[in-house]
Amino acid sequence: VHVALDVERGIDRLRRVVEPVGTAQLFLEGRHRGRSVAGAAIVAGISGAWAAAPEFKPLATIALKGGEAPRVLKFDAGGRRLYAGGNGAVEIFDADSGQRVGEVPVQGEIGGLLIAPGLGKGFVTAGGRLTAFDLASLAQTGAVAIGNGARDISHDGKSNRLFVTSAGGVVTVLDAASLRPAGKINLGGDLREAASDGRGHLF
Q1: CA dihedral sign of residues 107, 109, 112, 117
Q2: Would you state the pLDDT for residue 43?
Q3: What distances in angstroms separate CA 174 from CA 13, 26, 132, 156, 185, one per listed residue?
Q4: CA quadruple 155, 156, 157, 159: dihedral positive or negative?
Q5: Who's near 187: CB < 8 A, 6+ residues apart?
Q6: Residue 89: which region, alpha, beta or left (left: phi > 0; alpha: psi -120 to 50)?
Q7: Which of 138, 141, 161, 163 has an alpha carbon within 20 to 30 A of 59's alpha carbon?
Q8: Best CA proximity match to 172, nearest among 198, 194, 142
Q9: Which long-range contacts (CB under 8 A, 24 or more apart) does 57-64 make?
Q10: Angle at 154 between CA 73 and CA 149, to 5 degrees
Q11: Contact call for residues 62 and 41 (beta carbons, < 8 A)
């Protein structure tokens, strides 16, 4: 669960989000004393019976390079890694120790980030390009120009294709293995996120 906390007004909102879940792990992003941080907090034993004044305490903070807040956070549950995408790089951290394990440099501000453990790859959009990288070595394995304004990246398992939304209303379709262009979908508007059902349908 990735929750943006409003400290003054967010408790009731957070309660509605996590109350039905049980034990939950929350990854938070923001600024603390002028530094960009990504923090992990454990909320244990959440149930329907809430105390009058529940307290949520961060276990640790993770400082990012460059002093800017990450634009996107992704978590790989199997690999226990946290991926923080900002301006010029995707930084990777061990989720349990908080130690930085590496980075994937890119050019420009990151628009979207996809972690695909089933493919053993990650994909990131920045500077008008989509870059693929290996999740084990973090080495870049390919890149393709897709134009400025690229945002979210979705993967459809049935077709093994990537769908990249853009601010210009165009969805770019790529083969996930080769990054070869497979077409474009002109929808218009200012596109942000898309979702695949894994069976050939994109929403």
Answers
A1: positive
A2: 43
A3: 38, 32, 12, 11, 11
A4: negative
A5: 169, 170, 171
A6: beta
A7: 138
A8: 194
A9: 58/28, 60/98, 61/32, 61/37, 62/37, 62/38, 62/93, 62/98, 62/100, 63/35, 63/36, 63/37, 64/36, 64/37, 64/38, 64/91
A10: 75
A11: no
End-to-end CA distance of the chain: 21
Helix, strand, coil fractions of the chain, as percent rounded to 5: 5, 50, 45
Number of neighbours of residue 11 by Cβ within 10 angstroms = 16
Confidence of residue 50 (pLDDT cuts 50, 70, 90): low
Q: How confident is the model at residue 1 (pLDDT cuts 50, 70, 90)?
A: very low
Whole-angstrom Cα distance, residue 190 to residue 203? 15
Half-sphere exposure of 117 (CA within 13 A, CB side): 10
Angstrom distance (rounded) from CA 33 to CA 68:
12
d(CA 174, CA 147): 13
What the block records as the tokens of 41 is: 């907090």
In the DSSP assignment, the letter for residue 102 is E
Of residues 6 and 185, which shows the higher confidence score?
185
* pTM for this entry: 0.73
Contact 18, 24 (CB under 8 A): yes
What six digits make up the tokens of 149? Answer: 């304004």
